[in-house]
Design a protein that fits this description.
mainly alpha; 2 strands; globular
Length: 671
């Protein structure tokens, strides 16, 4: 003990004055794996002190240590040593108290599914910490804010006294650059800003109050004296299905009529009532459908951001009910309404976790069918695309053919909306038969349809997506630092094997960035230009393919490098080897599509001189000309080559050149 005290003080000083969470993460994770239980326990205690320290940088913690610490705490909560288990639970409770239930929801859901007792212990610890900070039994007010924030898990029911008083006492937050929602605590008491310079008054953030479940008897009492008078509640509790149907019809009449406005303040009580009577899995399909219809109306009418906790309440039973064809349509409507209220990124992970307990393959297939529909209606950009791809690949291994078919269709829809960028990620790790089937489906989609989106829905307060924002789905990566001097020197080496190896390294770098790179090449284009006159003809083909890959991955940012390589690409048109000529044509077409037409105008006439390239170049040129309007001076350079194409002996080339000539006339006029 005599050593531990100064050791802890030393560690705390290091954290306050020298170290960030990015520095601590590695050593802390190593200490969690130490064989001595005391080391694991005291490391957890140190983390708890750091998290609660007012000088702890919230951004640094969330970016560099939040996920690893949570994962370690979950693992250590099952440790053989009692002290370690207790400290791990306390650490998770501290996270819950500081960050709220939104950040901690995935973790708390996993704990609840694995061990409800452990989940309750974490919740109780968080509540105890909150009470200690506020003073036991004393509710905080706007004039005397607690030094530790109120966790979102204990948000009050809208319409209750607590909720109304909270709304009437909202406070404005000014987040300090270091850490908001924390102040120093000494000997268990909190300090106000007037008592000490080192303890500033920090008001707690005002968040939208979440509706939540309450005791069913309390819910009945509230509802029977307000919007559901008479025998409505008795009817929905009846054992006779006709009476339950009548009760639900009466409730729907209220929600669609004069009681709609009052129902907004009764979300928690109504869901609490439905959770018990008639329940989410009534044996009568009419009753069940009407329960989900009423729930859908309530979610749709609520204020944005207030229904997240309630949306998840019926999901487990709803997913099981999707095997019933009579109930499935209303289940799908409920899921769609929840998505419009809270977003697909919120709903998908919760449903995926609950889907593990669904045994009926028809229900699983029906849910995956809804996922496909939601991607079509909201657009791929409304989801975490790479997570959805992982889900679909997992579902491809299911024994039921409908599940596999719907999973394949999800990948096809993502491919249609995002193009070829994520193809490698989609097929990675799959069986060869699955890859062949998926590629077969991809080939059915015309090239002109790739990247198009037909979204019809959006989350409340957002606009319907009209285009896919690929930078949000797959951010671009700067590879200039990875294309180092060692690779560039190998590209000019005398040994063809090393030149080939260098190009393969660049290709792996680009593909490692999901073929989405920023507009810095690190010198790659200049080095690849020399390879287009390589003595080894096979390396010329490889270099052309690599240039096309890099240009496509860089997109419009590659325009500044087109002048570096284009002359060398056009020289390949005159090569004796047919494979090189064909690859040069494909590379030129890729450049037209990716870099933009304006950058290619000086080089297209020379390309059209090659009669074997005319059809492919004009096919790529026409769609771009319709979208990208060139200046008169730029269009003038294309007129003579296009007129020559109009005299080509091949009818298809003449037809394509007429379309191109029409675009020229629209810009320049007949004169």
């Amino acid at each position: 003990a005599s050593v531990l005290v100064p050791l802890n003080q030393c560690l705390d000083s290091f954290f306050k004055h020298c170290l960030s969470w990015s520095d601590l993460n590695g050593p802390v994770q190593s200490a969690f794996k130490d064989k001595v239980p005391q080391v694991r326990k005291y490391t957890l205690d140190f983390c708890i002190r750091c998290i609660r320290d007012p000088e702890c940088n919230n951004t640094d913690l969330k970016k560099n240590a939040f996920k690893p610490l949570i994962a370690s705490c979950m693992e250590l909560s099952s440790d053989r040593d009692k002290g370690v288990r207790q400290s791990a639970l306390e650490c998770m409770a501290t996270f819950l108290l500081i960050f709220g239930d939104r950040a901690m929801y995935p973790t708390m859901a996993k704990i609840e599914n694995a061990d409800k007792k452990k989940h309750k212990m974490v919740m109780d610890l968080a509540k105890k910490m909150k009470d200690e900070a506020n003073g036991v039994g004393n509710a905080p007010d706007a004039n005397s804010q607690p030094n530790v924030p109120t966790p979102a898990v204990s948000a009050a029911e809208p319409g209750s006294k607590t909720a109304s008083s909270t709304r009437s006492k909202k406070a404005t937050v000014k987040n300090s650059p270091k850490r908001s929602l924390r102040t120093k605590q000494k000997s268990g008491s909190t300090k106000s800003g007037s008592s000490s310079k080192s303890s500033k008054v920090v008001t707690s953030a005002t968040s939208v109050p979440q509706a939540k479940l309450i005791d069913v008897e309390e819910a009945k009492e509230k509802l029977s004296t307000s919007i559901f008078p008479g025998d409505i509640i008795e009817n929905i509790q009846s054992k006779k299905w006709k009476e339950r149907v009548a009760g639900m019809d009466a409730i729907l009449a209220v929600l669609n009529g004069d009681g709609a406005e009052e129902a907004k303040s009764m979300l928690g009580p109504i869901f609490s009532l439905f959770n018990k009577s008639p329940g989410w899995k009534d044996v009568n399909f009419q009753v069940c459908s009407k329960v989900f219809e009423a729930s859908k109306l309530l979610i749709a009418s609520a204020s944005p951001g207030t229904t997240k906790s309630l949306c998840a309440v019926p999901l487990q039973d709803l997913l099981n009910k999707m095997s019933d064809r009579k109930v499935e349509p209303m289940c799908r409507e409920y899921l769609t309404t929840c998505s419009e209220a809270n977003g697909l990124k919120f709903l998908f992970p919760i449903c995926k976790e609950k889907l593990k307990k669904v045994r009926n393959p028809k229900a699983i297939a029906a849910y995956i069918g809804w996922v496909l529909t939601s991607i079509q209606e909201f657009g791929a950009g409304a989801t975490d695309v790479q997570v959805v791809i992982a889900y679909a690949k997992e579902w491809l291994g299911h024994m039921h053919k409908d599940v596999r078919a719907n999973a394949t269709n999800i990948l096809v829809e993502i491919y249609k909306q995002t193009g070829k960028v994520l193809v490698d990620k989609m097929i990675e790790g799959l069986k060869s038969s699955q890859v062949a089937e998926i590629r077969k489906q991809f080939e059915k989609i015309p090239e002109s349809e790739l990247g198009k989106i037909d979204a019809t829905r959006a989350v409340k307060g957002q606009k319907v997506s009209k285009e896919v924002k690929m930078d949000d789905i797959v951010p671009r990566v700067d590879i200039s630092g990875q294309v180092h001097d060692g690779i560039l020197s190998k590209l000019g080496d005398k040994k063809w094997q090393l030149r080939k190896e260098a190009m393969e390294e660049i290709e792996s770098i680009v593909k490692g960035a999901n073929c989405r790179i920023k507009g810095k090449d690190g010198g790659a284009f200049s080095a690849l230009k020399l390879r287009l006159s390589d003595k080894n003809k096979n390396l010329i083909i490889q270099a052309l393919k690599l240039i096309g890959l890099v240009v496509e991955a860089m997109g419009s940012g590659s325009g500044k490098y087109i002048g570096v390589v284009m002359e060398a690409i056009l020289n390949c048109f005159a090569d004796r080897k047919q494979q090189i000529r064909e690859e040069a044509i494909r590379t030129l077409i890729t450049c037209i599509k990716a870099a933009g037409l304006a950058k290619l105008v000086p080089y297209i006439p020379k390309g059209l001189e090659q009669t074997n390239a005319r059809k492919d170049i004009l096919s790529a040129l026409n769609p771009v000309l319709e979208k990208e309007k060139l200046k008169k001076s730029e269009m003038k350079e294309l007129v003579m080559p296009i007129l020559k194409c109009c005299l080509d002996r091949i009818g298809e080339v003449r037809s394509l050149s007429e379309v191109t000539l029409k675009c020229c006339v629209e810009v320049m006029g007949f004169k």
